[in-house]
Amino acid sequence: MEQIYPKPPLDEESAPFWEGAKEHKLMIQECNDCDNAIFYPRTICPHCFSDHVTWTEASGKGHIHSYTVVHKARPPFKQDTPFVVAIIDLEEGARMLSRIVGDREDVSIGKPVSVVYKKVDEDLTLPCFQVEE
Amino acid sequence: MNSLNGKVAIVGAADTEVGVVPHMGATQLCVDAALRALDDAGINKEQVDGLITCNSMAEPYMYHAEAIAEYMQIFPRYCLGVGTGGGTTFSVLHHAASAIATGVCDTVLITMADSLHSGLSKEQAMAMQASTGHQQFEIPYGPTVPAFYALAGQAHMAEYGTTPEQFAAIAVACRKHANLNPAAQKREIITVEDVLNSRMIADPLHLLDCSLISDGGSAVVLTSAERAADFKSPPVYLLGVGEGHSHEHISQARNLTTSAAAESGQRAYDMAGVGPSDIDVAQIYDCFTPTVLIELEDLGFCEKGEGGAFVENGNVELGGSLPVNTHGGLLSHCHPGNPGSMFALTEAVAQLRHQAGGRQVKDANISLVHGQGGILSSHTTLILGRDKH
């Protein structure tokens, strides 16, 4: 039986992120007043509470802050095991949870990574990362 | 300084049967825990004017505390049901103590129970899993609760050279204590090798690095220090309490290897006027083994990064320099979800009353109890004593 992956509940606040992912662009926010990068998307800057927050395309490069190899998961993710879940520090300064695809032996904390896109279906593309050569 | 130090006492504490308890539902367990704690305190329900519960996953109510009050026909003037567990379990003790100290109410019953082992439908279990993590920016990647904690464990290993053997030593200590506790769900002795040979769940967490899934309930009765002498059982005094809250989602944590336990612990020590070296026995939240190691460091029992060396060689076992989780903890005694921390509290009371039987820490006078919830998100530290000061 085909397993249905959970869909992120879309809202106006985060729509540019998910729309960008479909076009293979990693969209994050930045604060025009204090210059901090912001992730996840918010209507205000959490650092200075400015509402001068704009979307920008990130470079898609960063490094592994931490990771784990998930060996046991419930459906639908059970069919993906083992898979690598990681926290990525983007070079712009924002931090996000994602997956690392590719050879698990190459994965370690601190390694540089770059974004790749995993198309789940027509409605959802997930930004994931791979270890850079 | 406005302080709760010495103003409030625990005068009743009791657990239900725990582990696999299919013959009782979550509501029954919650009521059973309440009755046992009232009996331990030697009071009747008319003397309870405050009630606090946590919601149940197996038998949820929109107004859980009111549902328990209704079941027991208690009509409190202070009534609070919380939706979460872990650190929240002890933050409600903070609330209850504040309510007593300010005269909002006199005697508060805190009762919590759930039946995660026997009471959850498949749909409820799925929903519980899916509720942990950011709905948009974490859940779609498929992380599990052990995976969230594994991210902290891996970071600690990379930053400080901590080893899986050191994490395993915590599970071994808890099991050794559970072996001495007839109520514990898992009692057979395990070794570091047993932990490392158990199934990998999420690197570096093996099955035996993970807490149990259980049924059970636990309750305490709180009142003012002045009234405490009128109760049947010897009082245990609240010397200090502190909280620290840093994030909800682990991918938003300020730091994966230093938690807000550093803040909750310092605030509790300051109120109690004691430090880590004054603690005779500690109950440290142990949903997964790395949680304990990080909390021990943040609570000042060793330097940051030295938790691995601290837990080795039996230091956290009975007879060691700091016996930890003398009932067996969530790893070996029981873990019914939101109420899990309560058993650490009732164990601290047993230790300070010198009623812990074969697992008694000799001359235990001061105990630290630490709970955390979410994913290293919400922390509360309690310091309890046999004496008021």
TrEMBL record, chain A:
Pfam families: OB_ChsH2_C, zf-ChsH2. This is Zn-ribbon domain-containing OB-fold protein. PANTHER family: BLR3430 PROTEIN (PTHR34075). InterPro entries: ChsH2_C, ChsH2_Znr, NA-bd_OB-fold, Thioester_dehydratase-like. Residues 18-51 form the ChsH2 rubredoxin-like zinc ribbon domain. It comes from Alteribacillus persepolensis. Residues 55-117 form the ChsH2 C-terminal OB-fold domain.
Automatic annotation (TrEMBL), chain B:
Keywords: Transferase. Residues 8-225 form the Thiolase N-terminal domain. This is Acetyl-CoA acetyltransferase. Pfam families: Thiolase_C_1, Thiolase_N. Residues 242-386 form the Thiolase C-terminal domain. GO terms for molecular function: acyltransferase activity, transferring groups other than amino-acyl groups. CDD domains: SCP-x_thiolase. The keyword Cell cycle does not apply.
